[in-house]
User: Fold this.
Amino acid sequence: MSSSSNDDTQRDPTWQTAWAWVRRQHAGEGELDAAASAELAQWLAADPAHRQTYAEAARLWLLVGRVPPAHDVPSPDAEDAAR
Amino acid sequence: MDLSLSPSAPTLGEVFIANRAQLQRVAQKIVRTADLADEVLQDAYLKLADGASVRDVRKPLGYCCQVVRNVAVDYHRHHSVEASYRTYCDDVELVSPPSSNDAPDRVLGGRQALVAIDRVLEALPARTRLAFELNRLSGLTQREIATRLGCSATLVNFMIKDADAALESCRYLVQAA
Assistant:
């Protein structure tokens, strides 16, 4: 593990864009519309660094979702849990 | 053993297995096919133990659902990106598995990564973390969260942006060497 969560890393615009895309893909119930999907695909195609950084952002999103909640929040699967 | 909640309580693994059919439904609702749902369940099962070492899991079945849903949504995201990539950019290869299949977070130690993320979330004001969890884990809209917390939707939007910005600083946890 690198300990360099330094400012340079955080200000990397590629990382910021990748993280914003992953957040946007998971925001709300809907999928990206066709225009946004095309925009993302083109951004990914433009540079291998974009693809690698996007994969990192997706991994971080996945890790965040595994942290148990600190608060007693309802489960979206409550209707299943009731069965 | 890592999975145990207390000496008498069933382990997360036991809860998972006892509720496999329900968890399968949760996964299949998102990924659509039974085969993919099976894959999701296998993947999620392997990831259960880390969470229990981060903080107390007060609702074991709820946590199992959370991990299954998390992996399933990632599979779904991955397949949508792949599909649109093929549509718009068929001249370039996009070779990357769903991120849940990637090794790095395991090499690094999923447990340490989760502890680090938990610290980042814990450093936020408690209400900000609550808003974030209601959005990310419960799937509530910002408007629904505002009603629940008795504040404006604008404030909820700011709180979720704050949480996202804090998490953005965690790149080092997933960065390729």
